[in-house]
Amino acid sequence: ALLYYLDGEILEEEPKVSAQDRGYNFGDGVYEVIRSYRGKLFALEDHVERLFRSASYIDLKLPYSPDEMSKLITDFYNKSGNPEAAVYLQITRGAAVRNHTYERGMKPVVFMYSKPLDDKPLSYYEGGFKAITVHDGRWDMCQAKTICLLYNILAKQKAKDAGCDEAIFVRDNGEVTECGSSNLFIIKDGILKTHPADNRILSGITRKYVIEVARKNGVHFRNEIFYKEDLFTADEVFMTGTLSEISPFVEIDGKTVGNGKPGEITLKLLHSFYEMVRSV
Ligand code: PLP
């Protein structure tokens, strides 16, 4: 069942936080979303490591060591008893009378929930998804997973209003970075490419595992910048994310991708990844 955690307390009812919380006033905080399969959290260490990196980008000192954080998340998740779950973890800088600047040494507010998920069958992913391209005018710290998601929210809403599943971000120079809440890969002439993990994208945990799966399957891979026009000449395009796993795109801006069905290499990666994460 849906279970909550706030600052040391586990609750079945939604907890309340201060209206002066800097997360509420400024979006001043970081977060993670961790997926569990068959009763076990997937890639927990990667998520905890990224959480600490995100916190350090925003000058936020976390009140735990990485090991303590992992244990806190695992203990909470185990209590929730959800074999298939999304665990959301948010740490904000804390509560104080509103002021842009902050005092170091404030007490961060740790919030989690564990939400049961329906495990998606392979056929769900094999059906394919649609995207639109949107302008990427985000800041230069996209590598930090912060709760300031307004740009992503507006992009994803635009996609939804257009009857699509995701928004693909394109910068002023035509460079394709990632999606509203996932990373993007293209395949052209047998070569798999995704944007390098720099300050313009969030370095996805799924992205990392998909690259590993590609290597294991002998798929040629490059961390390489590509452009909007490449989306329309690519043979295959897919996104990756903790909750979207590997989701193939069959239509972008109303144009068919490849032959209009998930491509051969994408399906190979999808099957291999799908199996790997569930064989725990
Ligand atoms: N990019 C953005 C902007 C995201 O918000 C996310 C996940 O929420 C991702 C990429 C994918 O990251 P992960 O695979 O770690 O879930």
UniProtKB/TrEMBL annotation:
It is an enzyme of class 2 (transferase). It comes from the Bacteria. GO terms for biological process: amino acid biosynthetic process; carboxylic acid biosynthetic process; D-amino acid metabolic process. Its EC number is 2.6.1.21. Its cofactor is pyridoxal 5'-phosphate. It catalyses: D-alanine + 2-oxoglutarate = D-glutamate + pyruvate. Gene3D superfamilies: 3.30.470.10, D-amino Acid Aminotransferase, subunit A, domain 2. GO terms for cellular component: cytosol. GO terms for molecular function: D-alanine-2-oxoglutarate aminotransferase activity; pyridoxal phosphate binding. It holds the Pfam family Aminotran_4. Keywords: Aminotransferase, Pyridoxal phosphate, Transferase. Homodimer. Acts on the D-isomers of alanine, leucine, aspartate, glutamate, aminobutyrate, norvaline and asparagine. The enzyme transfers an amino group from a substrate D-amino acid to the pyridoxal phosphate cofactor to form pyridoxamine and an alpha-keto acid in the first half-reaction. Belongs to the class-IV pyridoxal-phosphate-dependent aminotransferase family. PANTHER family: AMINO-ACID AMINOTRANSFERASE, D-ALANINE AMINOTRANSFERASE. This is D-alanine aminotransferase.
